[in-house]
Design brief:
The chain is α/β, with parallel strands linked by helices and 550 residues long. It folds into three domains: 300 residues, FAD/NAD(P)-binding domain (3-Layer(bba) Sandwich), CATH 3.50.50; 114 residues, 3-Layer(bba) Sandwich (FAD/NAD(P)-binding domain), CATH 3.50.50; 75 residues, no CATH class. It has 16 helices and 20 strands. Strands 1, 2, 3, 4, 5, 6, 17 and 18 form an eight-stranded mixed sheet that branches. Helix 1 packs parallel to helix 14. It is globular, with a radius of gyration of 23 Å. The two termini are 43 Å apart. The structure holds 3-acetylpyridine adenine dinucleotide. The site of 3-acetylpyridine adenine dinucleotide (N01) has 25 residues, from helix 5.
Amino acid sequence: MSNASISSAAAAPQSDQQSPTLDALIVGAGFSGLYQLLCLRDKLGLEVRVLEAGAGIGGTWYWNRYPGARCDSESHSYCYSFSEELMQEWEWSERYPEPPEILRYLNHVADRFQLKRSIQFNTRVKSVHYDQHANVWQVGTEGGERFTTRFLITAVGCLSAANVPKIAGLDSFAGRWYHTGEWPHEGVDFSGKRVGLIGTGSTGIQATPVIAATAAHLTVFQRTANYSVPARNVPLTEEFKRYVKQNAKSIRQLMHATTNGHPFAIDERSALQVTPEERQALYEAAWERGGLQFRATFQDLLVSKAANDTASEFLKNKIRSIVKDPATAAKLADIDHPYAAKRPPIDTDYFETFNRSNVALVDLRATPIERIMPHGIRTTAGDHALDIIVFATGFDAMTGPLLRMDVRGRGGVSLADAWSAGPRNYLGLQVAGFPNLFTITGPGSPSVLCNMPVAIEQHVEWITDCIAHMRKHGLTRIETSAEAMDKWVAEVNRAAAATLLPQAKHSWYLGANIPGKPRVFMPYPGGMAHYRTICDGVAARNYEGFSLSA
Ligand code: N01
């Protein structure tokens, strides 16, 4: 990557050094940080700086370069829509882009809007403390720099704190191990190697076929069996590229109107109102079309268990028909949650990969890992000799990226203490006691339940409008209240309870993948379009639920 930054690790001062006061400091230079920078610096004319831990822009896509990595949103919807010119000049090559193409796109955006001059790379934020007398945030970095800023905006992503499970003996492993979310940029050569992959979420399911293609042997360690629908990735035709450009506006309107921010509408029928034959035909068509839109086959798949059962049975039958060994098929199809109650993966030849002679599946529910040995992984059923272990074990989602910074608000209260029973905030945007701190795609917002760029643009634009409003009226502080948070948390819980989502007990949406993490349903499942209306209403009613002061 060729990022010309205003500063790099080499240039970053190692001593304690006070930098000039900023209007706004943004943490993170992924999709959200870049757009927030553009809005605050160029639209509002603020003094803004972005601090980014990586050596380049891209956030998720900078770090997640594991084999098989591909975006699950379709490329023409996985991009900014704030600029008609940008939409017209960029062309995607495939239905689902790989990290290098997404990074090319983001670098194009950053270069086009001259964003890199305001980004400081190789700079990890370590502390974020509110000074209530001066009404500013003091930000400290691992390199010892300090910044003072009026507004602090976290653009740290929802899935950026890698979760490497604490398995006894990992330190003793004689081979190499990697987490998919911190993948070496130079890549990993699996040829001739015995590889163990732990985790069968979206990442493990994407990585499995690609690793199996070059490794001598691959053992997949499955704790929770998962559904998956073929992605059906293809190069985009010239005709489709033309369609996207000619219909950019209506595609954007559709993404803004739907629950998940994707460019497809959800069928209005119930899965239970059609005949079994029709239902089967509709599922077959959706399977052939591929991708996340399998969820859109019927309107009630996420709210009615009986409707969902029809989809899950269809998908389990697909597994049984693809995987030739009945014992392996049974383990893969032994799925304990409703379809899409966990984030549904999409794949390229995942189940087919278990028909290869160099691939084995270990069911960790039946035979849990006991420890890691110098030569491999020991389960209760015996040892698996390995040269490489790949942890596709996910993330400390949503709260992890915020809590790993030492965030302290009014009175020195830490965010970790404020959230000891789980995240509490208002609209996913602000926490009482932490004035002028905005969390883009924070817990309590649709975020990961939505096509991310759509959720990000809405948050960035709301925050920008809010700061513009404050400046226009000479206001310098915005803070939500405990009461507003209580009401919002109740709304998130109400919306979750109206769906099947909480029924997946082993879900990172609930924090269940991290031992000791409070079980709280984190993203807002009331739908992106509805959430947008709520946020617009709050702003129109003079920022109801916030107090603004000079
Ligand atoms: O992580 P996950 P992911 N021992 O948490 C298992 C997004 N994403 O990186 O289910 C054994 O979903 C864990 O088991 P269990 C997307 O939103 C997007 O795959 O907790 N196993 C599970 O099987 C996605 O949902 C794209 O029982 C352990 C797996 O590891 C999110 O990122 C691509 C374990 C983790 O699955 C996270 O996906 C990829 C242990 N100690 C990902 N700990 C796009 O294309 C965990 N596991 C946009």
